[in-house]
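Model: You mentioned two targets. I'll fold them one after the other.
Researcher: Yes, keep them separate.
Model: Target one:
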Amino acid sequence: MDKSNPVPLSATEEMLSVNGDCPDHLYSTIFTLKDSPGILLEALKPFASLGISMSHIESRLGRCETGYDFYVEFICETEGLLDQLTQKLEEISCSVSLMTEGGRGNRVPWFPRSIRDLDKFSNRVLSMGAELSSDHPGFTDPVYRERRAQFADIAIKYRYGEPIPRVEYTENEINTWNEIFTQLSTLFPTHACREFNRNFPLLVENCGYRVGNIPQLADVSNFLKGWFTFHCVRSVVGLFVVQIPECGIPR
């Protein structure tokens, strides 16, 4: 990720960065609609019919090929209106997840209660595979963009409990890995910290860190779970939004 050229913030994120915390009555929802002509209009209707203003909306290909996930941030000032919106979304959606951003009344802000809850916002990121800024080195490279989108698609479709998908890397990708791995391996003894040098041989022995093989996330996850009591490692689409960075950290 090119941190020198940050992705532009959405209207809600700009509001959060100015105020320093979540405004009251701010909510977000993720719901899934079956693919059909006019699907975007169907996604907007429940909000428009109730006069609810949206501050951000995005869509991603859903878990199955026949549906799309919509992520919407909006402001709703009355409990009754929120209930009506939830009901309307449930009538047209395969699934609906509502999250509370602001501390409205006695409503407890949503937070993940289990590792499976990470699925509800794993695609809530600041940077997606196909959405590159115009000054990104790969912006005009169609091969790079397509490959990056493929990796993003894997992360979007992944759900907790499923086997982590194994990626078949290209010859060029493996050759690039070989060059980087070889050069860095010569520098680790003199430039890496003691903790890294103590644990790196474990990755070589157990996770396939070697010339000619790019390590698979599934192998790294299985090793960490058995050795360091990590619960799991999962692929992510991009950079998690600043409001919930701790939700993407494996425990």
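Model: Target two:
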Amino acid sequence: MTRPRCAAAPPSTRLLLLLVLLPAALALSSSSSDYCGTTSPGAWTPLASNGTQQVELLQVIALFRHGDRMVATGSGPCWQNDTAEYVCSMSAAAAPSLQPFNQSELVGDLFRKKFSIGRNEYNGTCGKGQLTSIGREQHVALGSAYASAYGDWLRAHVPSLHSAYLRSDDVDRTQQSSQSFCSGLIPPNSTSSYNIYDIHTRDESREVMSPNTALCPVLDRLYVEYATQPSVLIYFKKNVIPLVHAISDALGYTVHVWELPEIFDCANVKRCHGMPSPFSEQLYQQVCALFFVSSRARCSTFVPLLV
């Protein structure tokens, strides 16, 4: 989770409303212990002038990814003989808006999405990649932290979320993370009608919040060029192949290199939720180290090319 931070502006600078961005692509932190996030965003540095010049805050841009979630990759279960059951207590309710330009409507019937028990890719009541109640709490806390950091300015310039520009890709967990952040930033009022706030999004084929080879075909060529560099091939043979063998030994069956992203995702979800895992701490850290490297160069995208 991103901490709110205000910095002092130089003389005569006007600091540039609210832009909320939620990329759905997997973004790894620099430390494996940070991956799970927290519901306590931490302290913030208050905005201050240099004593001689007034500082006018004009804009706040908040950029963050979704909160804690369910396993989002693979087709379940995580690995052979994995009988873990995932229970999600959070759900989402919505209704069609028949007047799309209205900013509020009378409360009518809301319809809740509910995943059928025993009919999902992973055991339990969770949908694949679903935002969890922990993920919601994380973003409510983050929104509250921003409200504390920019309280006076926020109340004066963003009296309601209609004054904000919200942007997300078209994935449930990122949409819900945005909604949770906004609930912490400007808590909703209890009224007989509900407010409607637009979250701007795009079709997946036109999305630019994560690498899109359809819009930027050169990415495919760059990925292949990088993957076939001698240094990458050496790294793969020296580090990835032994790691795959170690994971196979831990799981008791042969694992293929293209299964690593799913295994990594599952290992993280289990770790974040205190669930047992067949991996030792050392092996888990080795898997993390591989993906902290690959996330910077998209190695996980072209690992199969190196087999």
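Researcher: Noted. Anything on target two?
Model: DSSP finds eight helices and ten strands in the chain.
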